[in-house]
Amino acid sequence: MPAQLNITPTPAPTLSNLVITTTIKGLQLKWDVTEDPTHASTEIWHSETNDFGTATKLAEVWDNTYIHVDAPIGITRYYWIRSRNIYGRTDGNVLSGSATPAAVQTTDVAPNAITSVSIFQNSAPATLVTYDVWSNVMLATFLGTGNAFVVDMQHLTNLAISAIGTTGAAYAQGRISVVESPYVNTGTVTVTNGSPIITGAGTNWLSEVSPGDVFFLASASSSRYTVQSVDSDEQITLSANYAGITGSGKTYYILTSSSLAIQISETTDQLEIIGAHAISHKFPFAYRTPVQTQAGRLYDIVLDWAIHRDDANWSISLSSVLKTLILTELKR
After folding, report:
1. What's the average pLDDT block by block, 10 residues per block, for the chain (332 residues)?
2. What is the value of pTM for the model shown?
3. Count of domains for the chain
4. CATH code at position 37
5. What is the DSSP letter of 88?
6. Structural domain containing residue 193
């Protein structure tokens, strides 16, 4: 009598935890990796109706994730995944899920794709001689978009020493700050040289502006004035006379509050007396840092500098050679 073999079919493995999320250009499917050695690949099926009988096979992958690129925006997609084992069987469980692609980006985006690059540079000479006080040496302003920006700030300086103390050290410092502020800029304004009165057109200042807020023109962001009083929806009075050129129909900003987003400081030049030796150090002030912005916010990039001495016998001064800011906006 011939021998009989009892062969038990090996079903396809079980998959678990299917999660579907919206990506920049479509939908991402992700599931847990099975530890079953007979698992060979994962089939992905999809349809516009919640019926596996109408689904078509989208892909077969050898990983635990898949991105459906260019899935139709605003249309709910239904997905099913199942394991195919090394014997070609697909009779394991079927996981299902759905999601709706959103129009978060309509163009192809490479990682860290650049939307725009702005360069601010100032080579005007300046010298700092006061001690222990942070002084502004450069201000740049930009509007948030909801995208990330990369701030690349460099400041070249020379430290001059006219007298050396007998103890301690003398040193120079640089500091970069990024300040975020909500703002008001509805309508336009008329400004008059020598007058503190600002007249608005299409403005609504009584409900939007308060004394102590900060006013400036878009064309002269470094010339800022404190609001002394809000006289009407179309008039404010500054705490000082406007020193710029008379004009009307001007774009303006009124900062209603502010918060510090980033602040980095560093010692750039140092001369120190240690025993009978004078030790000198010099470091470039060069920082590159990301800033995540919000739409409807204004951002100030502030570069300050300071000098310090431990001993009043020191006499130092700091000269600015070149200030450069490269501001790079990244696509979402």
Report:
1. 60 91 82 86 94 93 86 88 91 91 57 77 91 95 91 94 90 96 96 97 96 94 94 97 95 96 93 85 90 93 96 94 92 66
2. 0.65
3. 3
4. 2.60.40.10
5. S
6. 186-250
